# Entry
Amino acid sequence: MSGRVLLWRLLAALPLLLGISLVLFCVIHLAPGGPLDIYADNPAVTPAALARIAQAYGLDRPLPVQYGLWLRAMLTGDWGFSIRTGRPVVREIVERLGPTLQLGTVAMTIAFVASVALGVLAAVEEGRRLDRAVSMVTLVGLSIPVFWLGLVLQYLLSVRLGWLPSAGLESIGGSSVGDRLAHLVMPAAVLAFATSAGWTRYLRAGMIDALRQDYIRTAYAKGLSTRAVLLRHALPNAIVPAISIIALDLASLISGAVITEAVFAWPGVGSLFVESMDGRDYPVLMGVLMMGSAAVILANIAADLIQAALDPRLRS
Amino acid sequence: MLATVAGPGCGPARRRDDNTLVVGLTYDLDTLNVYSTGFLGDVEAAVVEGLLAPDAHARYVPVLAITVPTVANGGIVVAPDGRGMTITYKLREGVRWHDGAPFTAADVAFTWRAVRNPAFVAESKDGAEAIVAIDTPDPFTVVCRYDRITPTFAATLFTFGILPKHLLDGVDLNTSAYNERPVGTGPFMVKEFRRGQYVVTERNPLYWRRDAAGRAFPAIDRLIFKIIPNSNTLLTQLRSGELDLVTQTPYDQAKQMRHVAGVELLRSPLLSWQHLDFNFRNPTLRDPVVRRAIAHAIDRSVLVRVNGGFQTPVKSVVVPIFDFYDPDAPEHRYDPVEARRLLDAAGYTVQPDGVRARGAARLAYRFVCQAGKGDDELAQQVILAQLKAIGIAATADNRTGVAYRQARYKGDYDLNYSSWVTGVDPVYSRFFATHGANNGQGYSNPAMDHILARMEGTLDPGERRRAAFEMQHLLAIDLPTIPLTSGAAVVSMSERLRGFTPNPTNMTPFVGCADWRLA
# Structure
């Protein structure tokens, strides 16, 4: 992909994002409820008071006007203010990015290393005991709900054994590197396990496919070691189709792992999304969703770039 | 598997020996400003104090004021023309803000101005408009002039909390840093607020209250609030000892907590009541016989059971915690036989389709409640079945959010099930006066208007109580609404915690946290 193509793809992403923003805006307003529902049971908040609060947040204006105002502000870099907290949306999100990146990077790294290793091994041992074991484990990983796995681990490792803190980013007050790692172990393990299950199966299939190709036989015939054949010839070919799947998952590095973060009270973007959803905090929801959408688009472009680098045929 | 639990002593946090209490919050904090938060101010009640506060029996006791002003003690003086009143608070001397600055009458006057400011987007401006002027003749005297008789003057303003003038004068309260690091006079000071994670508060060494032996309150060194919206995780943390106290245990988890070692459960009543409202615009619902029959058709014990058994059945809109509750108010007991007899006698006979009708008037209703509120929808299903049993057809027509609220205010329903949560001094005219803000039912009875005007236009407690009793009797006759149940909070607490008192009011149990100790 040349620089010009890249530029074109980035520019094409802009109208795409605009379309996404319109759809998202409609969808979150179609969802039942609204930010003022929190006052529903409080008789002291009279219809007049509600009207006053709605007016203060611009919620009384027609939806197209609200969208227009939001879009105009967004284009100038103003993401608006949270209805729940009154703080700038950008600040709300930036605060949550750190924990999300931390959890995501660790989990994705573990998932990537594990799935490459297991995918290659399973493909080499195709049909044998190791391959069947890997298939079994990845099937379990795909089938188990993340929240359930999280709860079971919390019960075993925190309640029963007392080895690890059950939730949170760090201990309150004093937090050392060890303390943060102890808090990171369970959520990262759960996220990595769930993520790597799918990746491993893709890589295994890709490797099996690659190992059947003629150039592999040629490579062996040239006298290359098994290691060189696997890693230098088969793996790059096996990885190309898996890249787009992996890239999509990588977008959650930014948008957060919603369920894992909720179960482990991890203060990331995923948790922020859930809380904003509960409170129908439209400006924050739009901010988080737009950022997530941009991340998916960028991840896709990155995936194409990497695929092109790995596969000369895609470069033209 | 989850039913078996390791004994105490397991879990890293169980071995904590420092004098810290860790509280689990089931919601993510929006702001720590009591006047603008959408939640009950748990954290705020530990940090910020008002002039008065409601106690465990929902009666006002003095906090930063020396006494609760009444007509009898001269704190309240009614204007000669009977149209306004003056309330004088004598303030406690020697109280200091967390930063050491002295607390004075200027702070009280500032709080009124700040809350009343139209630019401040606050949910709780109650009581601020009724005050026309505040004089501070000396630093410890506040004289508030009201343009009307306001017996419920203590409901929010000055009770919720006093704002520090020296820090907030001229500051935009909508965006101020105060909303994250509030400075109060309370027993605990906010040390750190991590969004989405926790609030750490520490013992206020300057706190003014002392126990009988002269020791300074509070007895606990640190009070930490952890934000854990996921109810399963909340339960796990209570089990592992990482949490010591949850004041609003989700009902679905409360049953599991019953057998956890080291954790005690406490049922704490709330000032809320669930009710079924009639719309008087519907011709058959205007018929008192139909309303009475419906009242006899509802078995409250089933309503309590479907929602976990934590609510209590009630017969009056005045919940029994209040002094105004009339135990002798008439009651419509569950009696489906009587319900059917009433309808038969009035000529509403069962038609071939199973629904009663008299001439063209069919007893079939549109039944609204708030969609998405699981407890409400469950109760609605029970009521639907119980109405069917006496030959009344109702169909659920549930709405969400704004649509629901509009339906409730404008009376766009036949039957409406909902809940009200009030402060200590509910203003009942909001519900039952002809022009009450929350009266979407079209209910209007001049006798009721008169009773409510008496109740809310006098400062004489005896007269108010008499009017409240009359209101309850008339409500039982007019039956614009059927009070069904009253809510309760389930408190899960570590057995180490001593001195905990439940508080049913919107001030939450944390209003009493200065008295808590850890064994």
Remarks:
- The mean pLDDT of chain A is 88.
- Chain A touches chain B through 59 residues (CB under 8 Å).
